[in-house]
Amino acid sequence: MADKPTAAVKEPLFHITKRTDISTWKKILARAVAIVAAFVLCGLLAMVLIPSIGENPAKLGRFYKCFIDGSFKTINIVWRVLRDLSVLLCISLAITPAFKMKFWNIGAEGQVLVGILAAEGIAFKFGGIFSEPVLLLIMLLSAVVAGAIWGLIPAFFKAIWGTNETLFTLMMNYIATFLVSFFLSLWITNGSQVMPKQSHGALPAIAGNANLPVIILTAILTVLIYVYLNYSKHGYEISVVGESVNTAKYIGINVKKVIIRTMLLSGALCGFAGFLIGAGINQSVSPTSVGGKGFTAIMVSWLAKFSPAFMVLTSALVVFLQRGAAEITSIFNVSGSLADIFVGLTLFFVIGCEFFLTYELHFRKSKQEGKENNA
User: Fold this and answer.
1) Tens digit of pLDDT per residue, the chain (375 long)?
2) Which helix (H) or strand (E) holds 18?
3) How far apart are CA 351 and CA 85, in angstroms?
């Protein structure tokens, strides 16, 4: 019996391969072009969606100026931008060890929040009893321990029973929010759910500048995390586990121990970020104290390819866009949602650029091209 002819396998329209030959200067140029293109498109949308600009296109220059003024209008604004950048960078650094290990810690929002709760709870209960240096030390230790515990719980379940860390850490965010609401209902008996700004437990100003402590502590942390990830044994083990769990086991690395240890560190650093927000900025706590920075930090860390040095730049870009969007909302009297569109559009261009810098599309050749190549 004759064999049936084999059906021809149709080649897909395109396939994706990883790039290996793109130079550094081309990467820098591509990112710059992506940002410029995004700003041009934002300007075109502004002409359509903002009536005052649509009626008078000359105001388009003012639109772009708002992005700059949002971050550089006055020296006080510059210091606040550096402070906000530092907080976002601190959270991004905190989740990076776990992400580099391919443990998808989506729970930074909750880990930072419980850190703020622990720090401000100490300030609320013991402010005025201990001296300020002792009070700040207890607040710091409480925030770090609270964050570490919040990170340990999903790590333990992942290491022992293989649970899904993405869902687990995400749900822990909601628990942290409810926990803050619960304690506020105990501490603030008038039902306002708002803790008044504490008169004790604030980081002391340096040279009269209250923003400098947050900036300096984050700068120190950036250097320490860079050294830890690139020059320590623990950093090497994190990289190996992230590349291949089987390889890590083969060379004798205790994968369960690395997962738990790394998430303890990640949670502790998130708690440290909570201490900076509580003691360095708000001197209070509410369910919205983190303000979504835990989720934004995921994008910052990913865009920087988990490099602490590049995270400084990606954090600066995100804060610059956010502050510029807020200025646009104020100056042009438009909805904050419209300003968010401009931010999202710019980030979309940046993320898309990163994709094409990492991967290359190969389209299916036509039959005529195939014949010419075979000739």
Assistant:
1) 455 555 555 667 667 777 777 777 888 898 899 999 999 999 898 888 888 887 787 788 888 998 899 999 999 999 999 999 999 999 999 999 999 999 999 999 999 999 999 999 999 999 989 999 999 999 999 999 999 999 999 999 999 999 999 999 999 999 999 999 999 999 988 777 778 899 999 999 999 999 999 999 999 999 999 999 999 999 999 999 999 999 999 999 999 999 999 999 999 999 999 999 999 999 999 999 999 999 999 999 999 999 999 999 999 999 999 999 889 888 888 888 888 888 889 989 988 888 888 877 777 665 555 555 555
2) strand 14-18
3) 20
H helices present in 193-254, as ranges: 212-231, 233-243, 245-250
- The candidate with the shortest Cα–Cα distance to 309, out of 21, 92, 111, 30, is 92
What span, in angstroms and rounded, lies between the C-alpha atoms of 284 and 268?
20
What does the radius of gyration of the chain's CA atoms come to, in whole angstroms?
25
As a whole number of angstroms, the distance between CA 106 and CA 375 comes to: 54
For the chain, report the end-to-end CA distance as a whole number of angstroms. Answer: 36
Phi and psi torsions of 85, nearest 5°: -60, -40
CA torsion through residues 272, 278, 282, 288, sign: positive
Give the angle 266-268-270 at the CA atoms, nearest 5°.
70
pTM of the model: 0.90
Distances (CA, A) of 279 to 85, 137, 139, 173: 17, 11, 8, 21
**3-class secondary-structure state, position 168:** helix
Q: Dmax over Cα atoms in the chain, in whole Å? A: 96
- What are the tokens at 39? 């700003």
* Residues whose CB is less than 8 angstroms from the CB of residue 172 and which lie 6 or more positions away in sequence, other chains included: 107, 110, 111, 150, 153, 154
Question: Tokens representing 111?
Answer: 């880990």
Residue 311, amino acid: M
Compute the distance between CA of residue 329 and CA of residue 321 in angstroms, rounded to an integer.
12
Q: Give the C-alpha separation, 317 to 296, whole Å.
A: 12
